[in-house]
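Quick entry between incubations.
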Amino acid sequence: MNCDTMKSQVFPYVDAELPTELRNEMESHLVECETCRRVVQQEFAFREVYITHLRPDPAPPQLRDKVTQLLAGLGAPTALARRPWYKVFLYTGAAVVLLAVGVTLGLRLGAVIERGNVLDEMAEASVEQHQKLSRGQMPPDITKVSPQAAEDWFRHRVDFKVSLPDLKSPNVTLVGARMSRLANAEVAAIDYKLDRYRVSLFIMPEEAYNQLGLSEKPRFKILKRRGYDVIVWRHQATGYTLVSEIGSRACYVCHSPDEKFGGASLESFVRL
Amino acid sequence: MDKVSEFQAYVAGCLDSLHNYALLLVRPPDDHEDLLQESLLRAFRGFDSFDPELPFKAWVFSIIRNTHIDRHRRRKASPLEDPLNDAQSTGMLYSPLFSIPLAPEAILLRQETIEHVRDGIRRLPLLMREVVELRDIEGLSYRTIATIIDRPIGTVMSRLYRGRNLLRTYLVDPRREDGHATRGRHEL
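Done. Structure below.
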């Protein structure tokens, strides 16, 4: 392979789209040719610095509401009417079997589904509020205060404990805090900045956390919503939701990177 | 999970991407929100034919694209006119320039912001922008993109190559409107 052929294939190479044989030829050439090696290294650097951080333009809240309404209108009656007759027969049979299993089991199943929906709605709402907080569309009630001052502010406004550890690093800033609503409950919303990333922490009362229907294990539940990482957990009588783009690193707003938990690192508890 | 809930969950997981793609295709006075909603209804009606081998968002992208073309043809006297084939794209696609990829060194040295790069992508002619966004923002494979735009993989590679080079031209010289730089500038 010569340098011109190599350069014409740089994009498919860094996109990992080349057939194995051609890829091997390129890599042999790169071992020998410093100029081409540099070209490829620059492509990977360009990708790392810019391309991997690109995101689609977010859907505005009004459109999100419209789509939610549209999808909610995809009702069962119309859909049922379009189903072939044998499917209706099958569904009817399945319903009879379910009835035979018992109303109690049915009720429990319904509760599980409802809880799943509550968790989903809560994760969606957390991400939406995180976006609004970081874009200034949900202005904080208090700004530039210490964690202790924020705790005091919440103490007069919520009837559950808001505990905010000291900031563990000069790279972490408490941008602001405010009251908000999640999972049909009033929550404390805290907006942090870690390096150049925004991290939102939502603290909710025990009753609201219980509505999510989560089991005790794993202790940290990880969800991905719209490109954001949502970590949900409980500590004593309080529920927490942490939203960011940086995975478990977001935990550094409250914990130092070298902090150990029973001898284990933070990452071993929270894996994305 | 029933069909409606499953469909709702899929859409909720990629609504930003679907919105972004509808916004990319539609030019005022057409309404990208109408296009998205009509496409979602079509997608739901055809949900039984969705093949999970393909990413859900890619499947809906192809429906959005076809819906857009259908809507355009319904309104226009010439039913074969392609709303995606604008003059700017056509001119740039057949331009003889950009024989060698622009090295990104100059851009890296300038330490451009990510938002600046995003703006550069928005300035690209439609057919190039579409492929660049599907690859570099949505992370789709060449083969999946070829399925969405209903063209061979070679066309995807060609548009991507030219689109990325034009983006670099914009970033190196933000005043440039059409990307027609001298050959010397291309070999930065």
